[in-house]
Amino acid sequence: MTNWPSGAKILVVEDDKDILTVLKDQLELDGFDVKTALNGKAALEVFIQYNPDLILLDLNLPDIDGLRVCQKIRTHTQETAVIMLTARDRLCDKVRGFETGCDDYIVKPFEYLELQARIKAVLRRKSSTVAKRDVMDFGTIKIFPQRREVKVQGSPIKLTKKEYDLLELFAAHPNKVLKREFIISELWPNKELYSWSRALDVHILRLRHKIEPDPECPRYIITHPGVGYRFRTDESQEEGLSST
């Protein structure tokens, strides 16, 4: 079983019925919940009702161009991921796709394994981004994502950009063990930090000193030796932990 976000919903918009059927079958085998649409008008209707996590969007639709469909989706939300599927391989077409708000772009014909990898990457980025709610309340720690502000016991604390990004990443995966490699790939995507570097541990140490009641006996950021770290939000939740 592929390590997808549980219950992720995908809307496939494709006017070729054969391609649509193949994609739907493959995605369902991967554990996704899948809805389909054969044209742009139907896609927008399903989008409103279904609220998918990701849309596979063909550009060459018979009624509304896929770019226009993407524009309309972006007027509703920035949270739904969009991967465009198209036979247009010119650079200008790709640029237009990204300008309308798509998250990725794949040119037909493509192998399903490539599409699978791109879906995984996009969903991972989306799931690692904390929804921009007004406040994330973890008891003595409150995170205000829209302002990138953190309060501990009611008082604001100053965090560096990396410290805040690290805390936000933990908050997006509460009570889940995050492997060192995963944390590094999310916070240092250009690989300027190698997995054997101790820089991550330094950031963890500094963050603990700012949010923990007792940094020497952490309550929130728990070390799992040889694996990674976990942001504990419920002290009673010590079983059934999963890891990323």
From TrEMBL:
Keywords for this protein: DNA-binding, Phosphoprotein, Transcription, Transcription regulation, Two-component regulatory system
Domain Response regulatory residue range list: 9-123
Keyword Transcription regulation: yes
Domain (OmpR/PhoB-type) ranges: 133-233
Protein's GO biological process: regulation of DNA-templated transcription
Start-end of DNA-binding region: 133-233
Coiled-coil ranges (or none): none
Assigned GO CC terms: cytosol; protein-DNA complex
Gene Ontology MF term list: phosphorelay response regulator activity; transcription cis-regulatory region binding
Pfam family, one: Response_reg
Modified sites of kind 4-aspartylphosphate: 58
Organism annotation: Dissulfuribacter thermophilus
Source taxonomy: Bacteria, Pseudomonadati, Thermodesulfobacteriota, Dissulfuribacteria, Dissulfuribacterales
Keyword Flavoprotein: no
Record InterPro entries: CheY-like_superfamily, OmpR/PhoB-type_DNA-bd, Sig_transdc_resp-reg_C-effctor, Sig_transdc_resp-reg_receiver, WalR-like, WH-like_DNA-bd_sf
Protein name: Two-component response regulator
